[in-house]
Amino acid sequence: MSETIFTKIINKEIPAEILYEDDEALAFSDINPQAPIHFLVIPKKPIATINDMEAADKALVGHLHWVAAHIAEQQGFAQEGFRTVMNCNEHGGQTVYHIHLHVLAGKPLGWPPYQERLKV
Q: Which one from 63, 65, 98, 100 is the annotated catalytic residue?
């Protein structure tokens, strides 16, 4: 796999607002947020797409979700809720070929808004 912008962030060659880091994962704020809270959780192991994951990567991908929930709890939005999204390939909206979990929160994210669905 070729080097990506995420590899450069992991190697501290490009600055990022780091929210969490351990031996397996790194979480940082998205530079183009799509919600009031939007950060990425990436594995330090380079895996290009979901299709490139191996059986041995199952625990690592689960760890990415644990990191997302841990940050949500620390930042106080876990109980209100949040969305996690992992895109795969061009038609799935993936733009950086190093798997990454988007975490979005800070406003209602369902469509239509939950309150409008209750009126039906």
A: 100
Q: What is the pTM of this model?
A: 0.90
Domain 5-118 belongs in CATH node 3.30.565.10 = no
Give the residue from 109, 95, 113, 100 showing the smallest Cα distance to 16.
Answer: 100
Domain ranges of the chain: 5-118
Question: Which residue in the block uniquely carries the two structure tokens 């979005």?
Answer: 104
100 tagged catalytic? yes
Give per-residue pLDDT as tens, 24-61. Answer: 999 999 999 999 999 999 999 999 999 999 999 999 99
Question: Residues 6 or more apart from 19 whose CB is under 8 A from it?
Answer: 27, 28, 29, 39, 71
